């Protein structure tokens, strides 16, 4: 069953669910919700990932010795870092510019009002 369907629970099963241990209750609810298969897939994926990690740790000599891709990635990371810094600086300057512009407009309006009141 999936989450969008109603579940019919046998008589006596409710008491069993309520008196079950928390982990057993969780298993029953997950089965009713239909997410057990996703848990199984998650565990299988985690096992494959752990297997891959253990292989890569056990055989570091099998990794390519070329530093070309690593150096390229370092350069890209450096460019990205500099871009973020420049973008932040530009944003700060934009905020300062907008604040100064508002201040100048306000002063201009005050001077215009003062000039209009004198004449």
Describe the structure.
The chain is 78% helix and 0% strand. It starts with 12 loop residues before the first helix and ends with a helix. The model has no long low-confidence stretch (mean pLDDT 81). With 119 residues, it is an all-alpha fold. The radius of gyration is 33 Å and the shape is flat.
In brief:
The protein is an all-alpha fold.
Query: What characteristic shape results from the CA principal axes?
Result: flat
| Helical residues, percent | over 70%
Radius of gyration: 33 Å
Average of pLDDT: 81
Strand count: 0
* Fraction of residues in β-strands: under 5%
Distance between the amino and carboxyl termini: 83 Å
* Number of helical segments with 4 or more residues: 4
Poorly predicted tracts of residues: none
Structural class: mainly alpha
**Quaternary assembly:** single chain
One letter per element, helices H and strands E, the order comes to HHHH
Topology:
Layout: H1 13-19, H2 22-33, H3 36-58, H4 68-118
Keywords summarizing the entry:
mainly alpha; flat; 119 residues; 78% helix
């Amino acid at each position: 069953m999936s989450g969008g369907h109603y579940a019919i629970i046998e008589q006596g099963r409710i008491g069993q669910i309520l008196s079950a241990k928390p982990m057993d209750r969780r298993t029953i609810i997950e089965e009713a919700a239909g997410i057990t298969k996703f848990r199984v897939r998650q565990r299988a994926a985690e096992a494959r990932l752990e297997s891959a990690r253990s292989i890569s740790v056990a055989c570091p000599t099998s990794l390519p010795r070329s530093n070309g891709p690593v150096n390229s990635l370092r350069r890209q990371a450096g460019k990205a870092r500099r871009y973020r810094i420049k973008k932040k600086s530009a944003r700060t300057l934009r905020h300062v510019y907008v604040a100064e512009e508002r201040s100048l407009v306000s002063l201009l309006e005050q001077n215009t009002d003062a000039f209009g009141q004198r004449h």
